[in-house]
Design a protein that fits this description.
With about 140 residues, the chain is of the alpha+beta class. The protein has a domain of about 100 residues: Roll (Thiol Ester Dehydrase, Chain A). Helices cover about 30% and strands about 35% of the residues. Strands 1-3-4-5-2 form a 5-stranded antiparallel sheet. The longest helix is centred in the first third of the chain and has 11 residues. The radius of gyration is 17 Å and the shape is elongated. The mean pLDDT is about 95.
């Protein structure tokens, strides 16, 4: 069976309230890889000594968009669970507190709306660190295919 044949879920089968989550460690190597991928080398992200000397943060922090990108994994898990394919239309993020190198971030998505006219789905997103503190809230809008 090809992967195309295995993905037989439909928009109509998606249950409002469905949730997925994933946890990722955001350590120095992860921040470095992200910085290199987007070519953003602000010392607040790259240099713990500089960050401690010039800010109130205990170590370097992750790029905000890195925190936003963490919503991708639970979305992939959602699509795999329901055997659907989607295309990203938009995201929004509000950063509540910084993600410090060494934080384990759990990002959860929650299906809150189905837009029948266009078969779109909207998720609320929340990311928390290992202490249960919210670091980001947002939304994710997908077009089902």
């Amino acid at each position: 069976m090809s992967i195309t044949e295995a993905w037989t879920g439909t928009y109509e089968d998606l249950p409002l309230g469905a949730r997925e989550q994933s946890t990722q460690l955001i350590d120095g190597p992860a921040i470095d890889a992200f910085a290199h991928a987007i070519k953003s080398y602000n010392p607040i992200h790259m240099d713990g000594d500089w960050t401690r000397a010039n800010t109130d943060f205990p170590d370097r922090i992750a790029h905000g968009v890195m925190t936003t990108a963490l919503m991708s994994q639970p979305l992939v898990q959602f699509c795999e669970q329901f055997k659907i394919r989607t295309a990203l239309l938009s995201t929004s993020s509000k950063y509540i507190r910084p993600v410090v190198a060494g934080d384990a971030i759990t990002t959860a998505i929650h299906l809150v709306e189905k837009i029948d006219e266009r078969k779109r789905i909207r998720f609320e997103v929340e990311s928390k660190n290992q202490r249960g503190e919210v670091v980001m809230i947002g939304e994710l809008l997908e077009q089902t295919l």
